[in-house]
Amino acid sequence: MKRLLALMVLGGIFFSSAHALAVSVVDPTTYPLTSNQPFSITVKVFNDGVTKLEDYSVGIQSEYPYKSLAGEVYTQKIGDINGKETILKTFRFLTYDNVIEGSYPLKVFTCTGQCGAKSFAVQNLQFSGSANIQISQYSFNTSELAPGEVAQLTIQLKNYGLGLASDGIINLTNVVSSYTPFIFLDKPSAYYIGDIAVNQTKNVTFLVRVNDNITKGVYAMPVQINYDNIAHDLANVQFEIVSKANLEIFKIETEPLQPVRGSEFTVLISIENIGKGEATSTRISLEGDYIGERVSFIGSLDEHEDDIGLLRIFSLSGEQLTATLTYTDDLGTHTITQPITLTLGPAPPLSITPFILGVFALAGVLAYMFRKRIFKKKQ
């Protein structure tokens, strides 16, 4: 029994029949193929035998991602093929838009007569595509980035292109407006992320601490990604550094140091801003059973600045007070309370000396008046 052989050079496909016919697909004009690209492909038909083969046709079936062109014929008549004869037939196509990188089948067929029955074979052609990595979104796990704070930055990358991005390295430019905004704690600012396939997303997280020396304001940190040995600029990561004050009460004392019950005295409350931002609307209030001043207004305190709140007490019924420190910064209003226990000395005993002196003075006045009266009678 005789056989028909069809061989495709790009991968090898075979037909079998009663005749020795070889069909091969010659390399496309451009390879690998890309999206929206016109190309030509040639089919070589070779009669491997010595017997003439009659009334043959060869064709290619137009299927995605191979688009037929107007005016082109995709079943071409060969006719008779003598022994050891070679026939070349060329077909022109246009590839579709946005074909993702990969291998796609091309269907080649032969037939005789009216081509009622076709013998198909498949040859896979390779498409190449370029990756296009972009930042799809980014976020910090807190909206309150302040100097010294620890935060997590998550950057989501997506491949919007048509090809694989190989051996990606994301690089955060950690110098912004002469500042180094972050200290990277868990991984370096240039970090290997591997491959990203077409339409794949990949999240990269960085644990960072905000630099103590950065000032409040809005910053934009450039981001790059290197893949396929080419550096690509991505969108900036924007963030805002806020002012965060941190006030504390570090000393409470009285003037005099040992208040006496029933006497007027002053409570002195010392505070300090140990934070990295300005505190405004600062005030100290006292709560308790007493008669006196209730609020001491301080105003604003810069970083590392201190001040004293003075409150006079005219009469205190008990010994328990509560001091409340209130201030405002970029993060809102903050309140700190601290209980105060005063130890008051007893009221001094009533002294008899002034009473005795008063009695003597009164006696002297009476004696003087009495003598004066006797003197007038003698006259």
**Please, what is the average pLDDT?**
86
> Quaternary state, please?
single chain
Total helices: the number is: 1
Label the structural class.
mainly beta
List keywords for this structure.
379 residues; mainly beta; Immunoglobulin-like; 3 domains; six-stranded antiparallel sheet; 1 helix; disordered N terminus
What does this structure look like?
It contains one helix and 24 strands. It has three domains: about 20-125, Sandwich (Immunoglobulin-like); about 135-240, Immunoglobulin-like, CATH 2.60.40.10; about 245-340, Immunoglobulin-like (Sandwich). With about 375 residues, it is mostly beta strands. Helices cover about 5% and strands about 55% of the residues. It starts with 20 loop residues before the first strand and ends with a helix. The chain is rod-shaped and about 175 Å long. Mean pLDDT is about 85; it is low at about 1-20. A hairpin with a 2-residue loop joins strand 16 (about 225) and strand 17 (about 230-235). Strands 19, 20, 21, 22, 23 and 24 form a six-stranded antiparallel β-sheet that branches. A four-stranded antiparallel β-sheet has the order 1-2-6-4, with no helix packed on it. Strands 5-3-7-8 form a four-stranded antiparallel β-sheet, with no helix packed on it.
